[in-house]
């Protein structure tokens, strides 16, 4: 049942503005964990004896794998014990691993702690979406998630610049000290201000049979499953860019210290798109907005890969084409997640964990393949974007029974 927006304070203990800000900060943990270190990847590799520059991408992949698998645990846990306790536990694990990385002697040890750090971060991904679903439903959830994503996208705008600043005055270890401090900054308002949003009557037993039943509910819901698979495919393209961004923008286009500025511009396009989505979704609906954006994403990526096959893309053309895909992605992500969660409010924690696991692991693996395919040109990235777009369109068509743009009811 859709709850009115003015119940935000009653259900969470926060005003709407405070609620959106805190949820965005929780979601941004993952952007901070990845984007702030991009300027330092080269030095991390050199410091820890990584010979193959593509192997540096495993710093990102290890984190995503840890986060992906752990979501299967945190979702059912939060359905049994509530949202707040598991969330604080995840934040503590995340912050402690960041500090441990400061002292690692080898690249293998760094990857281990990055994996475990991803495990802690899984709580923020799963439980944030669950909390939003506890408080909102339908187009209201899509509006709130779009605003959360808008604030969340500000982090990739500033994080690489912060990382670059740290590298100018210190070295890569300090990046992880900053990450640990960020975790503390978020944990304090969660502990002191956020109320428990899961009512005792809605809690589910933490047993194997109940957990498996929750997974069955999610995986047998056609809308939830195939919108999740569509999101996973598109995230694969995004992760592929993140994995190879430093190699493309610095190695191919020679941007040097201007790399964070261009990377920030791409993230800014997604932030603008998320805000646009929040303004338009109540009027046009999630399907009309996101389906149109998906077709736009597919068209832009087709043009991108076609031109890249003809010859090297000039930097301005690369920026235009990639920015076009990023804008469309910003219109898609929050709406696809809201539509996947909409029919699963009664198992929100478990649903969020299954959806998050599929998106993170699926997107992470696809992104790793795209990143590892880097050959000194932008063609593998462009081809990756087009391929994931085709799969996403197919998954959405299956979810919608072969028809796009068809609203299911006035709230979705």
From TrEMBL:
GO molecular function ontology, one term from the record: xenobiotic transmembrane transporter activity
Alphabetized InterPro entries for the sequence: Efflux_drug-R_Bcr/CmlA, MFS, MFS_dom, MFS_trans_sf
GO biological process annotation, one example: xenobiotic detoxification by transmembrane export across the plasma membrane
Signal peptide boundaries: none
PROSITE patterns cross-referenced by the UniProt entry: MFS
Spans through the membrane: 20-38, 58-75, 87-105, 111-132, 144-166, 172-194, 224-242, 248-276, 288-307, 313-334, 354-374, 380-399
Record localization: Cell inner membrane; Cell membrane
UniProt keywords, alphabetically: Cell inner membrane, Cell membrane, Membrane, Transmembrane, Transmembrane helix, Transport
One Pfam family of this chain: MFS_1
Membrane topology designation: Multi-pass membrane protein
Family designation: Belongs to the major facilitator superfamily. Bcr/CmlA family.
UniProt xrefs under NCBIfam families: efflux_Bcr_CflA
Protein name, per record: Bcr/CflA family efflux transporter
Organism name: Sinorhizobium terangae
